[in-house]
Amino acid sequence: MKAIIACLLYVVIQVESNEYYNVTYEPVQRQLLDFKKHHPRPIGLWTKNAGEPVDIRDTITINSDQFSNQLLIDTISTVAGERIPERVVTAKGTGAFGYFEVTHDVSKYTYADVFNGVGKKTPVVVRFASGFQNKGGSDLARDLKTMAVKFYTQEGNLDLLSISIPVFAFRDPMLSRDITHAFNRNPQTNMYDFTSFYDIVTLRPIFAHSLFWLMSDYGIPNGYRKMDAFPVHTYELASKHGEKYYVRFNFRTELGFSYLTTAEAAAIQSLDLDYFTRDLYNAIGSGQYPSWKLEMDVLSLHDLKKVDYNPFDVTTLWKNGTFYTVPIGRLVLNRNVKNHFRDVEQAAYNPGNLVPGIPGPVDYLSCGERMYYRDTQNYRLGRNHNKISVNMPLYEKTYVRDGTPPTNLNMKNAPNYYPNSFHGPVPYVDEHRPWKKLKVLETNAFDLEPAWYFYNYILEDEAHRLRFIANIVLTLVPVTPPVVQRAMKLLHLIDQDLGERVKAGYEVALAAQQALANATPAETMSFRRVPSAEGHPIQMSDPR
Protein backbone atom coordinates (compact mmCIF):
# COMPACT_ATOMS: atom_id res chain seq x y z
CA MET A 1 0.00 0.00 0.00
CA LYS A 2 2.84 2.39 0.86
CA ALA A 3 4.47 1.60 -2.47
CA ILE A 4 1.29 2.50 -4.34
CA ILE A 5 0.97 5.82 -2.47
CA ALA A 6 4.63 6.62 -3.15
CA CYS A 7 4.14 5.85 -6.83
CA LEU A 8 1.10 8.11 -7.06
CA LEU A 9 2.95 10.89 -5.25
CA TYR A 10 5.84 10.58 -7.68
CA VAL A 11 3.50 10.90 -10.66
CA VAL A 12 1.88 14.01 -9.18
CA ILE A 13 5.27 15.59 -8.54
CA GLN A 14 6.39 14.80 -12.09
CA VAL A 15 3.35 16.42 -13.64
CA GLU A 16 3.22 19.46 -11.39
CA SER A 17 6.87 20.29 -11.99
CA ASN A 18 6.32 21.02 -15.70
CA GLU A 19 9.84 19.73 -16.37
CA TYR A 20 10.94 16.92 -18.65
CA TYR A 21 13.90 15.70 -16.53
CA ASN A 22 16.03 13.22 -18.45
CA VAL A 23 13.25 12.09 -20.76
CA THR A 24 13.29 13.61 -24.25
CA TYR A 25 9.78 14.28 -25.52
CA GLU A 26 9.05 15.35 -29.06
CA PRO A 27 7.20 18.66 -29.56
CA VAL A 28 4.19 16.61 -30.71
CA GLN A 29 4.19 14.64 -27.44
CA ARG A 30 4.61 17.57 -25.07
CA GLN A 31 2.04 19.93 -26.59
CA LEU A 32 -0.37 19.77 -23.65
CA LEU A 33 2.34 20.12 -21.04
CA ASP A 34 3.78 23.07 -22.97
CA PHE A 35 0.37 24.71 -22.81
CA LYS A 36 0.28 24.25 -19.04
CA LYS A 37 3.80 25.62 -18.74
CA HIS A 38 2.78 28.82 -20.56
CA HIS A 39 -0.44 29.09 -18.53
CA PRO A 40 0.40 28.39 -14.85
CA ARG A 41 -3.23 29.11 -13.90
CA PRO A 42 -6.51 28.23 -15.64
CA ILE A 43 -7.03 30.54 -18.60
CA GLY A 44 -10.40 31.73 -17.33
CA LEU A 45 -13.95 30.73 -16.45
CA TRP A 46 -15.67 28.12 -18.57
CA THR A 47 -18.76 29.58 -20.18
CA LYS A 48 -21.76 28.37 -22.07
CA ASN A 49 -21.97 29.25 -25.75
CA ALA A 50 -23.77 32.52 -25.02
CA GLY A 51 -21.17 33.54 -22.42
CA GLU A 52 -22.89 32.56 -19.14
CA PRO A 53 -20.37 31.10 -16.63
CA VAL A 54 -20.74 27.37 -16.01
CA ASP A 55 -21.67 26.29 -12.50
CA ILE A 56 -19.86 23.07 -11.52
CA ARG A 57 -23.18 21.48 -10.57
CA ASP A 58 -24.31 21.72 -14.21
CA THR A 59 -21.37 19.61 -15.43
CA ILE A 60 -23.07 16.40 -14.27
CA THR A 61 -26.58 15.73 -15.53
CA ILE A 62 -27.46 12.34 -14.02
CA ASN A 63 -30.58 12.61 -11.79
CA SER A 64 -31.03 16.27 -12.77
CA ASP A 65 -33.39 18.38 -14.86
CA GLN A 66 -31.66 17.81 -18.19
CA PHE A 67 -34.27 19.75 -20.15
CA SER A 68 -33.29 23.03 -18.51
CA ASN A 69 -29.53 22.41 -18.44
CA GLN A 70 -28.28 24.75 -21.16
CA LEU A 71 -24.74 23.35 -20.91
CA LEU A 72 -26.03 19.88 -21.83
CA ILE A 73 -28.03 21.33 -24.72
CA ASP A 74 -24.96 23.27 -25.93
CA THR A 75 -22.87 20.10 -25.77
CA ILE A 76 -25.26 17.74 -27.54
CA SER A 77 -26.40 20.21 -30.19
CA THR A 78 -22.88 21.25 -31.25
CA VAL A 79 -20.80 18.07 -31.16
CA ALA A 80 -22.52 16.60 -34.22
CA GLY A 81 -21.71 19.74 -36.19
CA GLU A 82 -17.97 19.80 -35.52
CA ARG A 83 -17.13 18.34 -38.91
CA ILE A 84 -17.37 19.96 -42.31
CA PRO A 85 -17.30 18.07 -45.63
CA GLU A 86 -14.01 16.30 -46.19
CA ARG A 87 -11.99 17.38 -49.19
CA VAL A 88 -12.57 15.05 -52.14
CA VAL A 89 -8.82 15.06 -52.79
CA THR A 90 -5.93 16.11 -50.51
CA ALA A 91 -8.04 15.35 -47.42
CA LYS A 92 -5.10 14.06 -45.33
CA GLY A 93 -3.00 17.13 -44.64
CA THR A 94 -1.16 19.41 -42.26
CA GLY A 95 0.24 22.92 -42.36
CA ALA A 96 2.35 25.67 -40.85
CA PHE A 97 2.95 29.43 -40.94
CA GLY A 98 6.09 31.18 -42.07
CA TYR A 99 7.42 33.85 -44.39
CA PHE A 100 8.79 34.35 -47.87
CA GLU A 101 11.90 36.52 -48.26
CA VAL A 102 13.04 38.00 -51.57
CA THR A 103 16.74 37.27 -52.12
CA HIS A 104 17.21 38.33 -55.76
CA ASP A 105 16.08 41.23 -57.91
CA VAL A 106 13.45 39.97 -60.38
CA SER A 107 11.95 43.36 -61.24
CA LYS A 108 12.96 42.73 -64.86
CA TYR A 109 10.33 39.99 -65.06
CA THR A 110 7.41 41.15 -62.93
CA TYR A 111 6.11 44.20 -61.16
CA ALA A 112 4.37 42.02 -58.53
CA ASP A 113 5.08 43.67 -55.19
CA VAL A 114 5.56 40.34 -53.39
CA PHE A 115 8.63 39.49 -55.50
CA ASN A 116 10.21 42.95 -55.58
CA GLY A 117 12.61 44.45 -53.07
CA VAL A 118 15.50 42.30 -51.88
CA GLY A 119 14.98 41.52 -48.20
CA LYS A 120 11.21 42.00 -48.32
CA LYS A 121 9.34 39.46 -46.18
CA THR A 122 5.78 38.33 -46.80
CA PRO A 123 3.81 36.16 -44.33
CA VAL A 124 2.61 32.81 -45.69
CA VAL A 125 0.54 29.83 -44.65
CA VAL A 126 1.34 26.48 -46.26
CA ARG A 127 -0.77 23.32 -46.41
CA PHE A 128 0.74 19.93 -47.26
CA ALA A 129 -1.31 16.87 -48.14
CA SER A 130 -1.47 13.48 -49.83
CA GLY A 131 -3.44 13.49 -53.05
CA PHE A 132 -5.90 10.63 -52.66
CA GLN A 133 -5.76 9.64 -48.99
CA ASN A 134 -8.76 10.10 -46.71
CA LYS A 135 -8.33 12.15 -43.54
CA GLY A 136 -7.34 9.10 -41.51
CA GLY A 137 -5.14 7.64 -44.23
CA SER A 138 -1.40 7.14 -44.47
CA ASP A 139 1.16 9.85 -45.12
CA LEU A 140 3.38 7.13 -46.59
CA ALA A 141 1.20 6.12 -49.53
CA ARG A 142 2.86 6.16 -52.93
CA ASP A 143 0.75 9.12 -53.83
CA LEU A 144 0.94 12.63 -55.20
CA LYS A 145 1.96 15.02 -52.41
CA THR A 146 0.82 18.62 -52.48
CA MET A 147 2.16 21.89 -51.11
CA ALA A 148 -0.18 24.88 -51.32
CA VAL A 149 1.32 28.28 -50.44
CA LYS A 150 -0.75 31.35 -49.60
CA PHE A 151 1.21 34.63 -49.69
CA TYR A 152 -0.48 37.45 -47.72
CA THR A 153 0.74 40.25 -50.00
CA GLN A 154 -0.05 43.97 -49.88
CA GLU A 155 -1.98 43.51 -53.13
CA GLY A 156 -4.12 40.56 -52.08
CA ASN A 157 -3.56 36.86 -51.54
CA LEU A 158 -1.38 34.97 -54.01
CA ASP A 159 -1.91 31.20 -53.98
CA LEU A 160 0.62 28.86 -55.58
CA LEU A 161 -0.68 25.29 -55.59
CA SER A 162 2.19 22.85 -56.05
CA ILE A 163 2.65 19.10 -56.36
CA SER A 164 5.62 16.87 -55.60
CA ILE A 165 6.40 16.01 -59.23
CA PRO A 166 7.06 18.50 -62.06
CA VAL A 167 4.30 17.26 -64.39
CA PHE A 168 0.54 16.92 -64.06
CA ALA A 169 -1.55 13.92 -65.08
CA PHE A 170 -3.75 15.61 -67.71
CA ARG A 171 -4.44 18.94 -69.37
CA ASP A 172 -8.19 18.74 -70.09
CA PRO A 173 -10.24 19.86 -67.05
CA MET A 174 -13.02 17.50 -68.17
CA LEU A 175 -10.89 14.58 -66.92
CA SER A 176 -10.71 15.89 -63.37
CA ARG A 177 -13.80 14.09 -62.10
CA ASP A 178 -12.94 10.80 -63.77
CA ILE A 179 -9.37 10.54 -62.53
CA THR A 180 -10.55 11.49 -59.04
CA HIS A 181 -13.15 8.72 -59.10
CA ALA A 182 -10.81 6.12 -60.61
CA PHE A 183 -8.03 6.83 -58.12
CA ASN A 184 -10.33 6.92 -55.09
CA ARG A 185 -12.34 4.14 -53.47
CA ASN A 186 -14.46 1.69 -55.45
CA PRO A 187 -18.17 2.56 -55.03
CA GLN A 188 -19.08 -1.02 -54.00
CA THR A 189 -16.06 -2.39 -52.17
CA ASN A 190 -15.02 0.98 -50.68
CA MET A 191 -11.40 0.01 -51.35
CA TYR A 192 -8.70 1.42 -53.60
CA ASP A 193 -8.89 -0.49 -56.86
CA PHE A 194 -5.84 -0.82 -59.11
CA THR A 195 -8.01 -2.21 -61.91
CA SER A 196 -9.81 1.13 -62.23
CA PHE A 197 -6.47 2.90 -61.80
CA TYR A 198 -4.82 1.11 -64.74
CA ASP A 199 -8.05 1.02 -66.73
CA ILE A 200 -8.18 4.80 -67.01
CA VAL A 201 -4.41 5.09 -67.48
CA THR A 202 -4.47 2.72 -70.46
CA LEU A 203 -7.54 4.41 -71.94
CA ARG A 204 -5.99 7.85 -71.39
CA PRO A 205 -2.25 7.24 -71.98
CA ILE A 206 -1.55 10.91 -71.32
CA PHE A 207 -1.53 9.85 -67.63
CA ALA A 208 1.52 7.64 -68.21
CA HIS A 209 4.17 10.34 -67.72
CA SER A 210 2.98 11.42 -64.27
CA LEU A 211 2.41 7.77 -63.35
CA PHE A 212 6.06 7.04 -64.11
CA TRP A 213 7.17 9.81 -61.76
CA LEU A 214 4.99 8.39 -58.98
CA MET A 215 6.29 4.86 -59.47
CA SER A 216 9.89 6.06 -59.22
CA ASP A 217 11.79 7.21 -56.14
CA TYR A 218 9.95 10.53 -56.44
CA GLY A 219 6.70 8.79 -55.45
CA ILE A 220 7.41 8.70 -51.70
CA PRO A 221 9.56 11.61 -50.48
CA ASN A 222 11.06 11.28 -47.01
CA GLY A 223 8.64 13.72 -45.44
CA TYR A 224 7.33 17.09 -46.59
CA ARG A 225 10.54 18.88 -45.51
CA LYS A 226 12.66 16.91 -47.99
CA MET A 227 10.30 17.31 -50.93
CA ASP A 228 10.54 19.64 -53.91
CA ALA A 229 7.27 21.17 -55.11
CA PHE A 230 6.11 22.46 -58.49
CA PRO A 231 3.11 24.68 -59.37
CA VAL A 232 3.31 22.90 -62.77
CA HIS A 233 1.47 25.53 -64.84
CA THR A 234 3.32 27.99 -67.05
CA TYR A 235 2.61 31.41 -65.53
CA GLU A 236 2.54 34.64 -67.46
CA LEU A 237 4.43 37.46 -65.77
CA ALA A 238 4.33 41.13 -66.73
CA SER A 239 7.08 43.71 -66.15
CA LYS A 240 6.47 47.40 -65.48
CA HIS A 241 7.67 48.09 -69.05
CA GLY A 242 4.91 45.95 -70.52
CA GLU A 243 7.14 42.98 -71.36
CA LYS A 244 5.81 39.45 -70.98
CA TYR A 245 7.63 36.42 -69.65
CA TYR A 246 6.47 32.85 -69.25
CA VAL A 247 7.77 30.95 -66.25
CA ARG A 248 7.50 27.72 -64.34
CA PHE A 249 8.02 28.15 -60.59
CA ASN A 250 9.95 25.56 -58.58
CA PHE A 251 10.25 25.18 -54.80
CA ARG A 252 13.55 23.38 -54.08
CA THR A 253 14.00 22.05 -50.55
CA GLU A 254 17.15 23.35 -48.92
CA LEU A 255 17.54 20.04 -47.07
CA GLY A 256 17.97 18.26 -50.39
CA PHE A 257 15.46 15.86 -51.88
CA SER A 258 15.29 12.52 -50.08
CA TYR A 259 13.06 9.52 -50.75
CA LEU A 260 11.78 6.35 -49.12
CA THR A 261 11.72 2.99 -50.88
CA THR A 262 8.52 0.97 -50.79
CA ALA A 263 10.01 -1.36 -48.15
CA GLU A 264 11.19 1.57 -45.98
CA ALA A 265 7.78 3.23 -46.22
CA ALA A 266 6.12 -0.06 -45.27
CA ALA A 267 8.28 -0.40 -42.17
CA ILE A 268 7.51 3.16 -41.02
CA GLN A 269 3.83 2.87 -41.92
CA SER A 270 3.43 -0.17 -39.67
CA LEU A 271 4.29 2.09 -36.72
CA ASP A 272 3.21 5.59 -37.74
CA LEU A 273 0.61 6.57 -40.34
CA ASP A 274 1.30 10.26 -39.55
CA TYR A 275 5.04 10.18 -40.23
CA PHE A 276 5.09 13.25 -42.52
CA THR A 277 2.81 15.24 -40.21
CA ARG A 278 4.82 14.36 -37.09
CA ASP A 279 8.14 15.11 -38.80
CA LEU A 280 7.04 18.59 -39.89
CA TYR A 281 5.56 19.53 -36.51
CA ASN A 282 8.56 18.25 -34.54
CA ALA A 283 11.06 20.00 -36.81
CA ILE A 284 9.36 23.39 -36.45
CA GLY A 285 8.76 22.83 -32.73
CA SER A 286 12.49 22.10 -32.29
CA GLY A 287 13.62 25.20 -34.20
CA GLN A 288 14.77 23.23 -37.28
CA TYR A 289 12.75 25.38 -39.64
CA PRO A 290 12.19 23.78 -43.07
CA SER A 291 12.94 26.00 -46.03
CA TRP A 292 12.72 26.02 -49.80
CA LYS A 293 14.33 28.13 -52.50
CA LEU A 294 11.83 29.57 -54.94
CA GLU A 295 13.13 29.85 -58.48
CA MET A 296 11.60 30.18 -61.91
CA ASP A 297 12.45 28.73 -65.30
CA VAL A 298 12.00 31.54 -67.84
CA LEU A 299 11.00 31.86 -71.47
CA SER A 300 10.64 35.31 -73.05
CA LEU A 301 7.94 36.01 -75.62
CA HIS A 302 10.69 35.87 -78.24
CA ASP A 303 11.90 32.49 -76.93
CA LEU A 304 8.35 31.21 -76.99
CA LYS A 305 8.18 31.52 -80.76
CA LYS A 306 11.30 29.40 -81.29
CA VAL A 307 10.69 26.31 -79.12
CA ASP A 308 9.62 23.08 -80.84
CA TYR A 309 7.29 21.96 -78.03
CA ASN A 310 4.23 23.29 -76.22
CA PRO A 311 5.53 25.07 -73.10
CA PHE A 312 1.97 25.32 -71.76
CA ASP A 313 1.46 21.55 -71.69
CA VAL A 314 1.38 20.63 -67.98
CA THR A 315 1.96 16.93 -68.76
CA THR A 316 5.49 17.48 -70.11
CA LEU A 317 8.77 19.03 -69.02
CA TRP A 318 10.44 21.94 -70.75
CA LYS A 319 13.39 20.82 -72.85
CA ASN A 320 16.85 21.49 -71.45
CA GLY A 321 18.69 24.29 -73.22
CA THR A 322 15.57 26.22 -74.18
CA PHE A 323 15.14 28.19 -70.94
CA TYR A 324 17.16 29.71 -68.12
CA THR A 325 16.56 29.61 -64.37
CA VAL A 326 16.26 32.69 -62.13
CA PRO A 327 16.32 32.54 -58.28
CA ILE A 328 13.69 34.60 -56.47
CA GLY A 329 13.77 33.97 -52.73
CA ARG A 330 13.36 31.65 -49.74
CA LEU A 331 10.26 30.16 -48.16
CA VAL A 332 10.71 29.41 -44.44
CA LEU A 333 8.19 27.74 -42.10
CA ASN A 334 8.83 28.80 -38.51
CA ARG A 335 5.52 28.49 -36.66
CA ASN A 336 3.22 25.55 -36.08
CA VAL A 337 -0.50 26.16 -36.22
CA LYS A 338 -2.29 26.67 -32.90
CA ASN A 339 -5.53 25.07 -34.04
CA HIS A 340 -5.60 22.61 -36.92
CA PHE A 341 -9.25 23.12 -37.83
CA ARG A 342 -9.01 26.90 -37.88
CA ASP A 343 -5.70 27.19 -39.74
CA VAL A 344 -5.46 24.06 -41.92
CA GLU A 345 -8.87 22.46 -42.39
CA GLN A 346 -10.50 25.82 -43.17
CA ALA A 347 -7.65 27.07 -45.35
CA ALA A 348 -8.87 27.63 -48.91
CA TYR A 349 -6.37 27.80 -51.77
CA ASN A 350 -7.44 28.89 -55.22
CA PRO A 351 -5.25 29.13 -58.36
CA GLY A 352 -7.37 32.12 -59.33
CA ASN A 353 -5.97 34.10 -56.39
CA LEU A 354 -3.40 36.20 -58.27
CA VAL A 355 -1.86 39.65 -57.88
CA PRO A 356 -0.93 42.52 -60.24
CA GLY A 357 2.16 41.57 -62.24
CA ILE A 358 1.21 37.87 -62.30
CA PRO A 359 -1.73 37.48 -64.71
CA GLY A 360 -1.34 33.74 -64.22
CA PRO A 361 -1.47 30.63 -66.44
CA VAL A 362 -3.28 30.72 -69.77
CA ASP A 363 -3.83 26.98 -70.36
CA TYR A 364 -7.30 25.43 -70.34
CA LEU A 365 -6.68 23.30 -67.26
CA SER A 366 -5.98 26.45 -65.26
CA CYS A 367 -9.23 28.00 -66.46
CA GLY A 368 -11.11 24.91 -65.32
CA GLU A 369 -9.34 24.89 -61.94
CA ARG A 370 -10.43 28.44 -61.23
CA MET A 371 -14.03 27.28 -61.52
CA TYR A 372 -14.00 24.01 -59.62
CA TYR A 373 -11.72 25.17 -56.81
CA ARG A 374 -14.14 28.01 -56.07
CA ASP A 375 -17.11 25.65 -56.27
CA THR A 376 -15.42 23.24 -53.85
CA GLN A 377 -14.70 25.98 -51.33
CA ASN A 378 -18.23 27.35 -51.54
CA TYR A 379 -19.50 23.85 -50.76
CA ARG A 380 -17.06 23.03 -47.95
CA LEU A 381 -16.72 26.40 -46.24
CA GLY A 382 -19.52 28.62 -47.55
CA ARG A 383 -19.51 31.57 -49.88
CA ASN A 384 -17.83 33.77 -47.31
CA HIS A 385 -14.78 31.48 -47.03
CA ASN A 386 -12.43 34.38 -47.80
CA LYS A 387 -13.65 36.03 -44.58
CA ILE A 388 -12.43 33.10 -42.46
CA SER A 389 -9.36 34.35 -40.59
CA VAL A 390 -6.77 32.11 -42.31
CA ASN A 391 -8.04 33.13 -45.76
CA MET A 392 -8.48 36.86 -45.16
CA PRO A 393 -6.25 39.16 -47.21
CA LEU A 394 -4.36 41.98 -45.50
CA TYR A 395 -6.65 44.55 -47.16
CA GLU A 396 -10.16 43.94 -48.41
CA LYS A 397 -13.06 46.19 -49.36
CA THR A 398 -15.79 44.68 -51.50
CA TYR A 399 -19.42 45.01 -52.46
CA VAL A 400 -20.06 41.45 -51.32
CA ARG A 401 -22.68 41.32 -48.55
CA ASP A 402 -24.44 38.98 -46.17
CA GLY A 403 -24.72 35.21 -46.55
CA THR A 404 -23.70 32.44 -44.19
CA PRO A 405 -21.26 33.66 -41.51
CA PRO A 406 -18.57 34.68 -41.06
CA THR A 407 -19.44 38.09 -42.45
CA ASN A 408 -17.12 40.00 -40.05
CA LEU A 409 -17.86 43.72 -40.32
CA ASN A 410 -19.90 43.07 -43.49
CA MET A 411 -18.63 46.44 -44.82
CA LYS A 412 -20.76 48.09 -42.10
CA ASN A 413 -22.75 51.02 -43.48
CA ALA A 414 -20.82 51.60 -46.73
CA PRO A 415 -22.76 51.67 -50.02
CA ASN A 416 -23.50 48.12 -51.20
CA TYR A 417 -23.67 48.80 -54.94
CA TYR A 418 -21.35 50.06 -57.68
CA PRO A 419 -21.19 52.57 -59.25
CA ASN A 420 -22.30 54.97 -56.55
CA SER A 421 -21.73 58.64 -55.82
CA PHE A 422 -21.36 58.22 -52.05
CA HIS A 423 -17.68 57.32 -51.73
CA GLY A 424 -17.84 53.55 -51.71
CA PRO A 425 -14.63 51.67 -52.69
CA VAL A 426 -13.41 52.52 -56.18
CA PRO A 427 -11.37 50.59 -58.77
CA TYR A 428 -7.97 51.70 -60.07
CA VAL A 429 -6.18 51.63 -63.41
CA ASP A 430 -3.25 49.21 -63.62
CA GLU A 431 -1.07 51.05 -66.14
CA HIS A 432 1.36 48.12 -66.41
CA ARG A 433 -1.24 45.48 -67.19
CA PRO A 434 -0.64 43.91 -70.63
CA TRP A 435 -3.10 45.01 -73.29
CA LYS A 436 -2.92 41.79 -75.28
CA LYS A 437 -3.86 38.32 -74.06
CA LEU A 438 -2.10 35.20 -75.32
CA LYS A 439 -4.45 32.53 -76.66
CA VAL A 440 -3.15 28.96 -76.52
CA LEU A 441 -4.71 26.33 -78.76
CA GLU A 442 -4.15 22.87 -77.33
CA THR A 443 -4.62 19.38 -78.73
CA ASN A 444 -6.07 16.25 -77.18
CA ALA A 445 -3.37 14.10 -78.81
CA PHE A 446 -0.89 12.41 -76.50
CA ASP A 447 2.79 11.70 -76.92
CA LEU A 448 4.58 8.74 -75.34
CA GLU A 449 8.02 10.29 -75.76
CA PRO A 450 8.02 12.04 -72.31
CA ALA A 451 7.44 8.68 -70.59
CA TRP A 452 10.16 7.07 -72.74
CA TYR A 453 12.55 9.91 -71.88
CA PHE A 454 11.78 9.51 -68.19
CA TYR A 455 12.60 5.80 -68.20
CA ASN A 456 15.83 6.18 -70.17
CA TYR A 457 17.24 9.46 -68.88
CA ILE A 458 15.56 10.74 -65.70
CA LEU A 459 15.90 7.40 -63.93
CA GLU A 460 19.59 7.98 -63.35
CA ASP A 461 20.86 4.44 -62.76
CA GLU A 462 19.98 0.76 -62.98
CA ALA A 463 19.16 0.50 -59.28
CA HIS A 464 16.52 3.22 -59.65
CA ARG A 465 15.08 1.46 -62.70
CA LEU A 466 14.80 -1.79 -60.76
CA ARG A 467 12.90 -0.07 -57.93
CA PHE A 468 10.69 1.66 -60.51
CA ILE A 469 9.85 -1.63 -62.24
CA ALA A 470 9.23 -3.37 -58.90
CA ASN A 471 6.75 -0.66 -57.90
CA ILE A 472 4.84 -1.04 -61.18
CA VAL A 473 4.77 -4.82 -60.81
CA LEU A 474 3.51 -4.49 -57.24
CA THR A 475 0.51 -2.45 -58.38
CA LEU A 476 -0.27 -4.69 -61.37
CA VAL A 477 -0.63 -7.90 -59.35
CA PRO A 478 -4.22 -7.23 -58.15
CA VAL A 479 -5.38 -5.90 -61.56
CA THR A 480 -7.77 -8.04 -63.63
CA PRO A 481 -6.26 -9.72 -66.76
CA PRO A 482 -7.83 -7.62 -69.57
CA VAL A 483 -6.56 -4.40 -68.03
CA VAL A 484 -3.15 -5.95 -67.31
CA GLN A 485 -2.84 -6.85 -71.01
CA ARG A 486 -3.55 -3.24 -72.00
CA ALA A 487 -1.04 -1.99 -69.41
CA MET A 488 1.63 -4.34 -70.78
CA LYS A 489 0.92 -3.15 -74.30
CA LEU A 490 1.19 0.50 -73.26
CA LEU A 491 4.50 -0.12 -71.46
CA HIS A 492 5.83 -1.99 -74.50
CA LEU A 493 4.88 0.94 -76.76
CA ILE A 494 6.68 3.35 -74.44
CA ASP A 495 9.86 1.25 -74.31
CA GLN A 496 10.38 -2.35 -75.38
CA ASP A 497 12.92 -3.06 -72.64
CA LEU A 498 10.58 -1.65 -70.00
CA GLY A 499 7.67 -3.73 -71.25
CA GLU A 500 9.67 -6.96 -71.23
CA ARG A 501 11.11 -6.39 -67.75
CA VAL A 502 7.73 -5.50 -66.24
CA LYS A 503 6.17 -8.58 -67.86
CA ALA A 504 8.90 -10.83 -66.43
CA GLY A 505 8.55 -9.28 -62.98
CA TYR A 506 4.77 -9.58 -63.13
CA GLU A 507 4.98 -13.30 -63.89
CA VAL A 508 7.35 -13.85 -60.98
CA ALA A 509 5.06 -11.88 -58.66
CA LEU A 510 2.02 -13.91 -59.75
CA ALA A 511 3.92 -17.12 -59.09
CA ALA A 512 4.90 -15.86 -55.64
CA GLN A 513 1.29 -14.92 -54.91
CA GLN A 514 0.10 -18.37 -55.98
CA ALA A 515 2.76 -20.01 -53.81
CA LEU A 516 1.58 -17.96 -50.86
CA ALA A 517 -2.03 -18.97 -51.45
CA ASN A 518 -1.03 -22.63 -51.37
CA ALA A 519 1.44 -22.33 -48.48
CA THR A 520 0.97 -23.73 -45.00
CA PRO A 521 0.81 -21.30 -42.05
CA ALA A 522 4.45 -22.04 -41.18
CA GLU A 523 5.55 -21.32 -44.74
CA THR A 524 3.81 -17.95 -44.79
CA MET A 525 6.35 -16.68 -42.23
CA SER A 526 8.74 -16.14 -45.14
CA PHE A 527 6.31 -13.62 -46.63
CA ARG A 528 5.44 -10.18 -45.39
CA ARG A 529 3.00 -7.45 -46.18
CA VAL A 530 4.26 -4.32 -47.96
CA PRO A 531 2.23 -1.35 -49.19
CA SER A 532 1.29 -0.92 -52.79
CA ALA A 533 1.87 2.32 -54.67
CA GLU A 534 -1.18 3.79 -52.94
CA GLY A 535 -0.13 2.62 -49.50
CA HIS A 536 -2.50 -0.35 -49.26
CA PRO A 537 -0.99 -3.77 -48.51
CA ILE A 538 -0.74 -6.63 -50.95
CA GLN A 539 1.23 -9.84 -50.61
CA MET A 540 4.65 -10.40 -52.06
CA SER A 541 7.72 -12.37 -51.10
CA ASP A 542 10.28 -10.78 -48.82
CA PRO A 543 12.69 -8.83 -51.11
CA ARG A 544 15.58 -8.82 -48.63
UniProtKB/TrEMBL annotation:
Domain Catalase core: 47-426
Domain of life, source organism: Eukaryota
Alphabetical keyword list: Heme, Iron, Metal-binding, Oxidoreductase, Peroxidase, Signal
The protein's required cofactors: heme
Record's keyword annotation contains Metal-binding: yes
Residues that, per the record, bind heme: 373
A Gene Ontology molecular function term of the record: catalase activity
Endpoints of the signal sequence: 1-17
Alphabetized PROSITE patterns for the sequence: CATALASE_3
GO biological process: hydrogen peroxide catabolic process; response to hydrogen peroxide
GO CC term (a single one): cytoplasm
Similarity-based family: Belongs to the catalase family.
PANTHER family linked: CATALASE (PTHR11465)
Name of the protein this chain belongs to: Catalase-like
Naturally occurring in which organism (per UniProt): Spodoptera frugiperda (Fall armyworm)
